[in-house]
Write a structure and sequence with these properties.
The chain is about 70% helix and about 0% strand. With about 140 residues, it is an all-alpha fold. Helix 1 runs antiparallel to helix 2 and helix 3 runs antiparallel to helix 4.
Length: about 140
Amino acid sequence: MSDPELAHDLDAAVQTRPQTSSGGAPGELGATYESELTESFLEKVEQRIDTAVDKRVRRQIAEQQMVVARGGRPEGIRHPGSALEGPAGAFALAVVSLVLAVPLSAIAAANLGLAGLVVCWGGIVGINACYTIGGSLRRPDHGD
């Protein structure tokens, strides 16, 4: 342990535990005091954890504020309309398109024949093309 006070408290809490030998242990203080010592130790551990978490959160907030102050975009923050951006969005759209293409093709072909099939696939291709073209228009031009 890096904190000597916490290590001492843990040692004191362990020393109060009853021994398995007959006659009891010389360090045994009683169930009430043992319970209080254990609770006190756990409260100190909880305080140390809270302090460490608070430090990390404050540091991460300060780092994100610096990024924003420099004109960047903080990590982990989503902006409206960005749910399907990037390769993950393209893959999701492709999977959804293929999954929906099967029943839509069957319905279109059964009701309208070849013309329905062409219209159905034209719509699927159109949606994917619009996504691709829209994605390239949304990306900033890095060739300044």
